[in-house]
Design brief:
The chain is an alpha/beta fold and about 300 residues long. The protein folds into two domains: about 5-20 and about 30-180, Rossmann fold; about 190-300, Nitrogenase molybdenum iron protein domain (Rossmann fold). It contains ten helices and eight strands. The strands form two sheets. The protein has a four-stranded parallel beta sheet, with helices on both faces. A four-stranded parallel beta sheet has the order 6-5-7-8, with helices on both faces. Strand 7 (about 245-250), helix 9 (about 255-265) and strand 8 (about 270) form a beta-alpha-beta unit. Helix 1 (about 5-15) runs parallel beside helix 3.
């Protein structure tokens, strides 16, 4: 058994013996909340705000995403020392599924996408083989992100009642900004002459549903697997037949296939950011989504 597996067993044992409700800021110690990756970290930061009762950390560094992340011993120590975890759920954090299962049994995990109106595989262009029956990329739609923020607010209010009013107020304020952001993007999309797009994978299906875009197809059906020659040919044929104007890549993916298809079809290429990686700051999500808004307007207005 390698060192990683030994430490994983230790973490699971340690977590199984902890009652999360013993963690209390009232004892003079901050409640340690560990978020899974960048957008969940940003949402939680905005909910906690200026409170000195909660310490928020992020498991995955900002430059890395959850699709292909490999846990390190230092990450496992973070998990072991956390009182609570806030994750996206829907299989995004599959790489720590065993640890999450242990903490969930103790009520120490919030799946922030729980209870949201989800897309089943096959809807809104989602023909992507992912982590289950639903598209997990909820956070990429500001409307869905706002719902996750409210879930996070309620969870923090539950585990730290003394700070509940602050968390709920901060959450409502931030969710309100995200709803306005969604309306900004929706307004831009409404004015576009063509709302049909091809994306590199299915990260933008919720954004499409909530703003009026139409994702006709994706290039990568499974993260880490190159599209086959037949799949590439099918996308090329679709673009020519439907006269699709634009293909959108992502900063987390190579643009090789996108550029190849664009060269074959004459489609324009844009870059949309699902905000799975980036700067771990309170404003980064909103800044990034407004860049996405501007890119959509620039590419699809031509």
């Amino acid at each position: 058994m390698n060192k990683i597996n030994v430490f994983l067993l230790f973490v699971c044992f340690a977590l199984s013996s902890v009652n999360p409700h013993l963690a209390s800021a009232g004892e003079g110690k901050k409640i340690k909340v560990l978020t899974s990756f960048l957008p969940i970290y940003i949402f939680t930061l905005n909910v906690v705000g200026a409170s000195d009762r909660v310490e928020v950390d992020c498991l995955i560094p900002g430059e890395s995403g959850p699709h292909d992340y490999q846990m390190r011993p230092s990450d496992m120590r973070k998990v072991a020392h956390a009182d609570f975890m806030i994750i996206n759920g829907l299989g995004v954090e599959e790489f720590i599924s065993d640890i999450i299962a242990v903490k969930k049994r103790k009520g120490a995990v919030l799946e922030s996408a729980s209870g949201l109106p989800l897309l089943h595989a096959g809807e809104e262009g989602d023909d992507h083989d992912h982590h289950g029956d639903h598209n997990p990329h909820t956070w990429v739609s500001p409307r869905m992100a706002a719902m996750q923020v409210i879930n996070i607010s309620k969870f923090l209010a539950l585990i730290d009642p003394a700070g509940a009013d602050l968390y709920m107020a901060n959450g409502e304020r931030y969710a309100g900004r995200l709803h306005l952001l969604n309306e900004e993007i929706k307004s831009v999309v409404a004015g576009l002459p063509d709302k049909r797009i091809i994306t590199v994978h299915n990260a933008f299906d919720y954004l499409a549903r909530d703003t009026g875009l139409e994702v006709l197809s994706v290039i990568y059906h499974t993260p880490g697997e190159q599209p086959s020659a037949a799949e590439m040919g099918g996308i090329t044929t679709l673009i020519r037949k439907e006269k699709v104007k634009a293909i959108f890549s992502e900063p987390q993916f190579s643009d090789k296939m996108v550029n190849l298809i664009a060269k074959e079809t004459g489609a324009r290429v844009g870059m949309l950011d699902p905000v799975a990686t980036g700067e771990p700051s309170e404003w980064f999500y909103e800044v990034s989504m407004r860049k996405n808004r501007d890119v959509l307007k620039e590419i699809l207005s031509q």
